[in-house]
Design goal:
Helix content is 19%, strand content 48%. It is α+β, with helices and mostly antiparallel strands. The protein has a four-stranded antiparallel sheet with strand order 2-1-4-3, covered by helices on one side. It is elongated, with a radius of gyration of 15 Å. The protein starts with a strand and ends in a 7-residue tail after the last strand.
Length: 73
């Protein structure tokens, strides 16, 4: 089974990278919508980090991993 996660990357006030993860994002991925959502997160100041508020976008990545469930006896 393939699991996908959307990673949103921001810079905080100290210039460090802060990552937010969204499991099972809606596909196909709409880059413009992701960018707008990231702008809204920064503007609304809904998340903070040990290095201060989120102040800028760094990027976003779609991560995929294959998961195999094992049956244990």
């Amino acid at each position: 089974m393939m699991e996908k996660t959307l990673e949103l990357q921001f810079f905080n006030q100290e210039g460090k990278i802060v990552r937010l993860f969204i499991e099972n994002p809606i596909e196909p991925i709409n880059e413009a919508a992701i960018s707008a959502a990231m702008d809204a997160i920064i503007t609304a100041n809904v998340f903070t980090s040990s290095g201060g508020d989120l102040v800028a976008k760094k990027g976003a990545r779609l991560l995929a991993s294959e998961v195999t469930e094992l049956v244990l006896a």
